[in-house]
Amino acid sequence: MTAIGTGSTVAVVGTGTMGQGIAQVALVAGHRVRLYDAAPERAGQAAAAIGRRLDRLVEKGRITAQERDAAHGRLSPAASLAELADAALVIEAILEQLPVKQELFTALEDIVADDCLLATNTSSLAVTAVAGPLRHPGRCVGLHFFNPAPLLPLVEVISGFATDETAATTAYETAAAWGKTPVRCADTPGFIVNRIARPFYAEALRAYEERIADPATIDAVLRDGTGFRMGPFELTDLIGQDVNEAVTHSVWTSFFQDPRFAPSLAQRRLVEAGLHGRKTGRGWFDYAEGAQRPAPQTAAPCPAPEAVGLHAELPGPAAVLRELIEEAGIKITRDRAPGESEGFLRLPGSACLALTSGSPATSRDRGRYIRFDLSLDYRAATRIALAASEACSEADLAEAVGLFQALGKQVSVIQDVPGMIVARTIAMIVDFAVDAAARGVATPEDIDTAMRLGVNYPGGPMEWAERLGARWAWDLLDSMCHHNAGGRYAPSWALRRRADLEGQVL
Questions:
Q1: DSSP strand pairing (369-372 vs 383-388)
Q2: Is residue 3 part of a domain?
Q3: Whose CB has fewer CB within 10 Å in the chain, the N or C terminal residue?
Q4: What amino acid positions are annotated as catalytic residues?
């Protein structure tokens, strides 16, 4: 099979924001589109709303007036499901309730032709379960668009247990013909994006619950220090706290309450309070007119040290700090201690400054250690988080702050915990991605494409696994697991295997 031709009708059931967006995509691609909604008059209202969006596209020069008029002529609301009888593809975007979706598709089987493709836009339910009651479950496939559907390019094409390969291929090629970037994935909880993205939200919420830092500071460290377009708190406010929490709970339940996917009590309380984010005017932040967004915790200016000692080379992406320090005019001296191999900087007051690991800065030997957080690009980063051991003095911390400020970075001082903020988040995302690839959820290439396009990550997690090393992620998570009971940070076997193979000639 190939893509469904533009001479065929596409039906969209459910006319909320997502349904309207999907209908607009199919319409602009040249299809006849029929809209149906169980609520009276909703389909007509949705058709009018899509018409207004087409008008705006003309105003912006993205389509011509003639193309708009032709699209208007191809769009029609349907008063009943029976009017969808000639559809070659039906996409549902209704309530995320399994019985409701099953009832819809069961009814459609008695209406549409045997070769009509039935697609669910579910983001959290099993495609296999949606298709379970059907006489012909092979034609049911997942087509998961991302909101707003007309703008975001990613579409996850999900094959349920019974989905025919021809049906999945047709869905994939149709999405591509509509100008989207489809990726193939197996029917597992969360599919690709909602599975692998969980640590981005979960670790931020965990850090907040551990009182490592406030939401504004956690957002700033991940955004300004690593390149994420939005921090997790502002992003969940945009998504809707109720929506994000529901997806998290669904994935956790589907994985039989695996502690790695555990929901957050802090987010649950926010949802219970009705503070769902932008749509309610308040979530983690206040969106009332004139409300001031809280500023991240930022250290006051401190003098830069004249010189620092370098003990071995700093690991991974932190190696570039040597260049940045020299460019800032700070002298670097060699500082080697017999029998030690870990790279770190020796500050003038003798405190050690090192990249965070899965252990806290505070150690049994009561040494004066300061940890700095991971960045995927220290040259581009504009903010760095620091955490000092209990043995450090204010003068020790001031030297570390002044050093990074001399490199052009703002500094956020946070509480001392294993993995800090960025490192634990990236390591968990890498582990989830490596594990998903090993389990056949999707190819490594599709995983990276999905995470870059679906949630605007500054890179793909499989790419991060290559750059940072699976051994780095394994060591950090294994150490964090030692410091945190319960199995949340237990690294996957797939990550261990990849780490063991690194550097071997096969």
A1: antiparallel
A2: no
A3: C
A4: 123, 144, 156, 194
